[in-house]
Amino acid sequence: MRCSDFSRVRPNLFTQSNVHHAMKNTLTCLCVLVLATVISAQAAISGRWRGQTTNGTEIILDLTATETALTGTMVRNLDSVIITDGKASKNTFTFKATINDQTEGFTGEVNGDEIKVWLDRQGPERAAILKRMKK
User: Fold this and answer.
1) Burial 53-88 (b: 16+ CB within 10 A, else e)
2) Helix (H, G, I), strand (E, B) or coil at 120
3) Are 62 and 45 in contact (CB under 8 A)?
4) Which of 61, 95, 106, 119 could form a disulfide with 86 if both were Cys (CB 3.0 to 4.6 A apart)?
5) Domain 1-135 carries which CATH code?
């Protein structure tokens, strides 16, 4: 069989229609993977968390992650403050909160039903460990 005969036996796989369908399927799969990653981040971070700082101060975080944004409240020694400038990505997050009339930056990492959260100026060595509160 000659090469020219092969095209008669097997039709051209690279027709415009086939390429279009392949690209459409690839884009659909990519969108599903991105959406799954976003939903996973939302589920991992969203919820109520309770724990103590290294000096014994009780902290409760009530967090809601949507796409890459993070909102919620932080309760510290029974004082509730609104979280601002919150950002979420996979298993990490950042936000700001005003404590004693001073805006502080916070960073956190989620690991299952536990998070570590720390003041940016103190670093992760001084992280508070918080556990997910059951509903």
Assistant:
1) beeeeebbbbbbbeeeebbbebebeeeeeebeebeb
2) coil
3) no
4) 95
5) 2.40.128
Count other C-beta atoms under 10 Å from residue 45's C-beta: 25
Q: Is the dihedral of CA 121, 52, 60, 113 positive or negative?
A: positive
Average pLDDT over residues 81-86: 97
Contacts with 92 (C-beta within 8 Å, 6 or more apart), sequence order: 107, 108, 109, 110
Name the DSSP class of 57: -
pTM: 0.67
- List, for residues 9-48, the tens digit of each pLDDT value: 555 666 776 655 555 655 543 433 343 343 344 458 999 9
Looking only at the bridges linking them, the beta strands covering 79-82 and 114-119 are unpaired
Q: Which residue has the tokens 């990492």?
A: 109
The answer to whether 44 and 36 are in contact (CB under 8 A) is: no
Report domain extents, the chain: 1-135
